[in-house]
Amino acid sequence: MLWLRMATPAQRWLLSAASLAVFAGIYGLRGGAAYAAGVALMFCIHEAGHLLAARWRRVPAEPPVFLPFVGAFILTHPEAASDGRPDDEAFIALGGPALGTAGAWACWAAGEALGSPQLVQAAWLGMVLNLFNLIPLAPLDGGQIAQAVSEPLMWSVGLHALAVLVFWLPPQALAVMALVVGPLMAARFWMGDAASAATAPPVLRPGLRWAYGLGYLGLLGAAALGVGLLTR
């Protein structure tokens, strides 16, 4: 993404806005304006969580770029932070599903209060989005958080979760998983310990590892509960 790093801040935000417009337009063709607005809203809240977490840690971050049927990504530069900490990447990864899940619950509450099925549907989409992102496999948010707790545990739990999800996720979601996670998994198994050493995060002190572990489980439970309640 060298071209994105070389762009001016105004160009980056223009690209972000243009990608969001295309993103929403494609979903609008598929499910209508209300569906597109709900998808765009939930993705924007999720990505805002990453940006706010990066700003909190004073880590330089680019505006989000939205990719239809794949999701969105934000480039961060932890190495450029003047007071960088070893858990910066995990903290930024946690910010997305934290604000995204809270936003989905708030959207559900607003939908019920206003009698709006569109807002309730948007809330369901948000719960699913954040639950999907919490799958403990890098480079998904859940994988980056789980790596901060235990890199070997992340791969063990993540691969078992993936084996179960193969029978549950729709084909489109499986295609996204293959596109996002596939290259890293291939490198892991082809290069073995060398790939693991190259991608392993800094070792955190036990207190931080417990904090991230409990935070991850809490978010996982909140998103899973929301999906369960809204799917009934």
What's this entry about, in short?
By secondary structure, the protein is an all-alpha fold. 75% of the residues lie in helices and 3% in strands.
Question: What labels describe this entry?
Answer:
232 residues; mainly alpha; 10 helices
Secondary structure elements and pairings:
Layout: H1 2-6, H2 9-31, H3 33-56, E1 65-67, E2 71-73, H4 88-114, H5 117-133, H6 141-149, H7 151-165, H8 171-191, H9 193-199, H10 206-231
Helix pairs in contact: 2-3, 3-4, 3-5, 4-5, 4-6, 4-10, 5-10, 6-7, 6-10, 8-9
Q: Explain this structure to me?
A:
The chain is mainly α. The protein has one domain. Helices cover 75% and strands 3% of the residues. The chain contains ten helices and two strands. It has helices at 2-6, 9-31, 33-56, 88-114, 117-133, 141-149, 151-165, 171-191, 193-199, 206-231, and strands at residues 65-67, 71-73. The protein has a two-stranded antiparallel sheet with strand order 1-2. Helix 4 crosses helix 6 (141-149), helix 4 (88-114) packs parallel to helix 10 (206-231) and helix 8 crosses helix 9. The longest helix is centred in the middle third of the chain and has 27 residues, at 88-114. The chain starts with a helix and ends with a helix. The mean pLDDT is 82.
